[in-house]
Amino acid sequence: MPNLAKAIPRKVVRTSSEAILSRDKNVIHTGLAKDWDTSRRLSKSLYRATLRMVPRILVAYEIHDIPPNDARRRVRSFFDQHKNVSDLGSAETLRLRAEVDLNEAIRAWKTNHHIRHYLDEPLRGPALPEIAGSEFLTDFY
């Protein structure tokens, strides 16, 4: 009986630490960076891949009221929000979380509400009324 593992041609896939977008499966391969240069390169790669995927995500989730440029600005604001992170572990956690979110959006594992949560500006309603005095929770202590 022939060895099937040798008979099946294997596709050469780049290492997972390169965090590339596979055109065949629309998956971003993740990996951990061991230094800041690699982390910065992977983060930039993720940022570019996210910006490239924004129009496709908007069409896939039928979000027609938000233009792609506004969605890209919102993505940039998320990346800018964390640009001053000084701990490599925290930076890698943020990057891996963003890669997982992008993968889930590409594979349509998210709902329209999930995508809108990222793209819509947070709603700021009126402040909650203050509860009279500090005696509110005294019975529970």
Explain briefly what this protein structure is:
It is built from 5 helices and 2 strands; from the N terminus they run αββαααα. With 141 residues, it is mainly α. The protein is extended.
Report on this structure.
The protein is mostly helical. It contains five helices and two strands, in the order αββαααα. It has helices at 4-7, 36-60, 68-81, 88-106, 112-119; strands at residues 21-22, 27-28. It has a two-stranded antiparallel ribbon with strand order 1-2. The longest helix has 25 residues, at 36-60. The protein is extended and about 55 Å long. It starts with a helix and ends in a 22-residue tail after the last helix. Residues 1-24 have low confidence and may be disordered.
Read across the widest sheet, the strand sequence of neighbours is 1-2
Give, in order, the helices and strands: HEEHHHH
Helix content: 40-55%
Low-confidence stretches: 1-24
Characterize the main sheet.
Answer: 2 strands, antiparallel
Structural descriptors:
extended, two-stranded antiparallel ribbon, 50% helix, mainly alpha, 3% strand
Task: Present the secondary structure layout.
Layout lengths: L3 H4 L13 E2 L4 E2 L7 H25 L7 H14 L6 H19 L5 H8 L22
Antiparallel strand pairs: 1-2
Helix pairs in contact: 2-3, 2-4
